[in-house]
């Protein structure tokens, strides 16, 4: 382990926070350009399933490469292994399962897919390098209240995210087109239940890891997904006169 690299990993984490804030501002100024917001103008696009698989895959592949190419000294300790497994389980689902459940999704602009791919490379390296080489935990960290609460939040958030995606996929019956108001689960309380689940998941991961790197990822996720959720919420209000006005944007009873 090189002390200098540890400082560099901290700097990369702070940069990730800054990217989240910048991305949040840009998303307020320039609307997302995929899915329901896709421009009708011709552009280079990637089929939805391929786009999601390709852009999420680095968060699974890069950590495996990082751990294989060097001696992952810290992974001899259970807390490090569990935390890295939490990260990998999410992205195994997002890159190897979720894309192939998509039903007729609209093609994604190549630049959007490319930006997501680059972020997953960046964050996959940051999280895995830190956990495999620099994160120091006591062997009983897995019984610490911060870890236990964080792990529970991570698991609950992932289940909310998966369940909410299931609801969205099944809004239309076979042969139907157009958009519908999501019903059921946490969609009864918020517009972006799937985003809420992901925010809870990574906040739990950040708490369980008790690290700048984990906190930076949670902060980035919150900044980006809140901005996207605000856009979705406004879209539903404008499109559906009967859209429930009591629904919050992303956090039940708060935001």
Automatic annotation (TrEMBL):
All residue ranges annotated as the 3-oxo-5-alpha-steroid 4-dehydrogenase C-terminal domain in the record: 107-255
Reaction(s) catalysed by this chain's protein: 17beta-hydroxy-5alpha-androstan-3-one + NADP(+) = testosterone + NADPH + H(+); a 3-oxo-5alpha-steroid + NADP(+) = a 3-oxo-Delta(4)-steroid + NADPH + H(+); androst-4-ene-3,17-dione + NADPH + H(+) = 5alpha-androstan-3,17-dione + NADP(+); 5alpha-pregnane-3,20-dione + NADP(+) = progesterone + NADPH + H(+)
Membrane topology, as annotated: Multi-pass membrane protein
InterPro entries to which the protein is assigned, alphabetical: 3-oxo-5-alpha-steroid_4-DH, 3-oxo-5_a-steroid_4-DH_C, SRD5A/TECR
PROSITE patterns, per database record: S5A_REDUCTASE (PS50244)
Oxidoreductase as UniProt keyword: yes
Location, primary (coarse class): endoplasmic reticulum
Documented EC number(s): 1.3.1.22
Keywords: Differentiation, Endoplasmic reticulum, Lipid metabolism, Membrane, Microsome, NADP, Oxidoreductase, Sexual differentiation, Transmembrane, Transmembrane helix
Keyword presence, Endoplasmic reticulum: yes
GO biological process: androgen biosynthetic process; cell differentiation; sex differentiation
GO molecular function: 3-oxo-5-alpha-steroid 4-dehydrogenase (NADP+) activity
Residues spanning the membrane: 108-126, 147-164, 205-226
Compartment annotation: Endoplasmic reticulum membrane; Microsome membrane
GO cellular component, one term: endoplasmic reticulum membrane
Pfam hit, one: Steroid_dh
Enzyme class: oxidoreductase
PANTHER family: 3-OXO-5-ALPHA-STEROID 4-DEHYDROGENASE, 3-OXO-5-ALPHA-STEROID 4-DEHYDROGENASE 1
Role this protein plays: Converts testosterone into 5-alpha-dihydrotestosterone and progesterone or corticosterone into their corresponding 5-alpha-3-oxosteroids. It plays a central role in sexual differentiation and androgen physiology.
UniProt family annotation: Belongs to the steroid 5-alpha reductase family.
Record protein name field: 3-oxo-5alpha-steroid 4-dehydrogenase (NADP(+))
Species in which this protein is naturally found: Lynx pardinus (Iberian lynx)
